[in-house]
Amino acid sequence: MIKKKDHWEKVFKTKTPQEVSWTEAYPKNSIDFINQLNLDIRLPVIDIGGGDSLLVDNLLEMGFKDISVLDISKKALQRTKKRLGERSKKISWIVSDILDFKPKKKYTLWHDRASFHFLTNSKDIDCYKEIVNQWASKYMIFGTFSKEGPLKCSGLPITQYSCESIAKRFQKHFDPLECKYSIHQTPFETQQHFIFSSFKKKC
Ligand SMILES: C[S@@+](CC[C@H](N)C(=O)[O-])C[C@H]1O[C@@H](n2cnc3c(N)ncnc32)[C@H](O)[C@@H]1O
């Protein structure tokens, strides 16, 4: 079986953004959810499995000063850096499997669109949970396929979530704030059903 990292490096080496289902011209749900949190732009935010998403461009435009983007694929981050040019120097780029991530600081906002749902066994999900319990200090936003969404993405199995099931995953340390169902129009004019949910750390 092809290794996770090799899979993603190959995707980002061989496919353009128009050739993958998850591409968004504008990450509206993520930005709407972030705006609702009214965050201090000086505080650290991280995009997990950021790939070559335009979220980071928008975070820069929103004025965020401490942005990190993590991805298992070096090529994905290289593509984003190239797009941003000089502005890429303002970002902390982290090439890592999220399950091996050893953060050096806490993140006020933890964002993950379509990366967490690739974890399909309880050991990996528990490992991710341990990482956020320790390193996500205030808010989290997740975008995942919903129960009406696909069972696979990029040929890999995923875990589908409902607003209830994702809240249950994180209930020990995070309270749900908001959750909405959303239909993503892929670049190939097909639809994918997502949920977007936000959480606040329990005191
Ligand atoms: C479906 S894409 C979504 C990309 C981006 N978040 C977006 O919304 O456009 C999934 C991304 O997660 C990354 N990824 C998958 N598994 C990962 C893992 N275990 N650790 C870190 N990144 C991972 C992939 O390389 C890819 O960039």
Description:
The chain is of the alpha/beta class and 203 residues long. The protein is built from 6 helices and 9 strands; from the N terminus they run ααβαβαββαβββαββ. Strands 3-2-1-4-5-9-8 form a 7-stranded mixed sheet, sandwiched between helices. It has a two-stranded antiparallel sheet with strand order 6-7. It has a single domain, classed as Rossmann fold (3-Layer(aba) Sandwich), CATH 3.40.50.150. The structure holds S-adenosylmethionine. S-adenosylmethionine binds next to helix 1.
Task: Tell me the total number of β-strands.
Answer: 9
CATH architecture: 3-Layer(aba) Sandwich
User: What percent of residues adopt helix (DSSP H or I)?
Assistant: 25-40%
Supply the number of structural domains. Answer: 1
In sequence order, what are the helices and strands, one letter per element? HHEHEHEEHEEEHEE
What's the gist of this structure?
With 203 residues, this protein is an alpha/beta fold.
